[in-house]
Amino acid sequence: MSETFLFVHGAWHGGWCWKDTEKALRELGHETHAPTLSGLGELSHLAHPDITPDSHVEDILAVIKWRELDNIVLVGHSYGGLIVTGVASKVPEKIKSLVYLDAFAPEVSGKSIFADANPERMAAFEAEAANGNFLVEPDLFDAWTDDPVKKEWLKSMCTPHPIGSFRFGVTLSGRQSEVERRHYIVCSRNSPSPFQNEYQRVKAQPGWQTQEIAAKHDAMVEAPQVLATMLHKIAKEEIDA
């Protein structure tokens, strides 16, 4: 039976980053959706200073409504973990499974995950955003992939990110806990990283299944076939905790 996957990309990226993973999943018979968040990728010309994680939650809620999606496997990468959590807190009844791919998995409403996870990096973002600038440049390509060709492609595709998404957390209602199937996939070659800490935290909690993928942070770019196979098994409940 076909499953419906909805992908939420991370900071600086766009829906484009999922294309190879989407292709592999479609070849397995699944339906996929990979929208781009406001102010990024092909929507970068619409960037403005007031974009926050809640803005991006509204983006995904609109996709769910207007594409008439239901029984969704909702996958968030990196910063996208905030967004899928916010979506789950709004429409848990629409979600079959939540999957965090090397992502933040917030538990507290409104808390800036970036400032908490890496205050030095957040301070650098704030310095970059001084003098009225509200966009910050991507800065960690070496953590995303070792493949030189893919790294150059990422550099050509990534766009500056609205800093409001980093300054503020996502608003949570608490209803995200109604989604019973929660998975965390950690990218084992992306270490050290705040996502290793997220992985260890959720691994110790009941109700989570955890897996590792041998990739750097951008597993959907670096190992799309492996990731697609893992997501297929998650959706079909064929994967071990």
Automatic annotation (TrEMBL):
<keyword id="KW-0378">Hydrolase</keyword>
<dbReference type="InterPro" id="IPR045889">
    <property type="entry name" value="MES/HNL"/>
</dbReference>
<dbReference type="InterPro" id="IPR029058">
    <property type="entry name" value="AB_hydrolase_fold"/>
</dbReference>
<dbReference type="GO" id="GO:0080032">
    <property type="term" value="F:methyl jasmonate esterase activity"/>
</dbReference>
<protein>
    <submittedName>
        <fullName>Alpha/beta hydrolase</fullName>
    </submittedName>
</protein>
<dbReference type="Pfam" id="PF12697">
    <property type="entry name" value="Abhydrolase_6"/>
</dbReference>
<dbReference type="GO" id="GO:0080030">
    <property type="term" value="F:methyl indole-3-acetate esterase activity"/>
</dbReference>
<feature type="domain" description="AB hydrolase-1">
    <location>
        <begin position="5"/>
        <end position="228"/>
    </location>
</feature>
<dbReference type="InterPro" id="IPR000073">
    <property type="entry name" value="AB_hydrolase_1"/>
</dbReference>
